[in-house]
Amino acid sequence: MKIEQAVALIKDKLPEKRVTHSLNVAETAVKLAEIYDGDAQKAELAGVLHDYCKYDDLGTMYQIVTSRGLDSNLLSYGVEILHGPVAALIMQETFGIDDEEVLLAIKNHTTGRAQMTKTEKLVFIADYIEPGRQTPGVEEIRELAYNQGSLDKTIYEISKRTVLYLISKDINVYDATIACLNYYNYSDERVKDD
Ligand SMILES: [Fe+2]
Ligand SMILES: [Fe+2]
Where are the domains of the chain? Predict the structure, then answer.
């Protein structure tokens, strides 16, 4: 899919604020791709499309998860995690996107996971630090991402903040998010940028 088509798709479906966020994520992912020698085209496409299903009807998303063979455990956690996997499935089946890295980046942007591909990392981080984000502490994450030279440390710090937030709200934490946290914990010597 060409980038213009992707932009037209989200403009057709998402409210203006979410379109702005999506374009910001794409632009940020491209910047990170330049710093970290990633694939800017894949990062941009996944960035534009990552929130395509953000406001989809919950019942429909539940049905897609159960009927299309997505991990049924997705349904046992905060509903915010569903729109990534559902969007990836729709992009593949309805819009014919077949690039595995693009699909994975869309799919896993809501949860993270261990052993992410470069494009997944770029989009996961860009979603957290795009210029419109004002989460407390986001500046520290921007500094890490842009100036400290480690995607993996940045992912760990984002996962840590996300998990702490979820716990503070008594929201259960999806397995892949815990796996992401553990995998990228750089206090553990096993972890190297990959
Ligand atoms: Fe999202
Ligand atoms: Fe997003």
Answer: 3-135
Distance CA 83, CA 77 (A): 12
Q: What is the mean pLDDT of the chain?
A: 95
**How many angstroms separate the alpha carbon of residue 18 from the centre of ligand 2?**
8
pLDDT in tens, 168-179: 999 999 999 999
CA distance 110 to 76: 14
CA of 189 from ligand 1 middle (Å) equals 31
pLDDT value for 192: 56
CB-proximal residues (5 Å) to ion ligand 2: 51, 127
Q: What is the CATH number of domain 3-135?
A: 1.10.3210.10
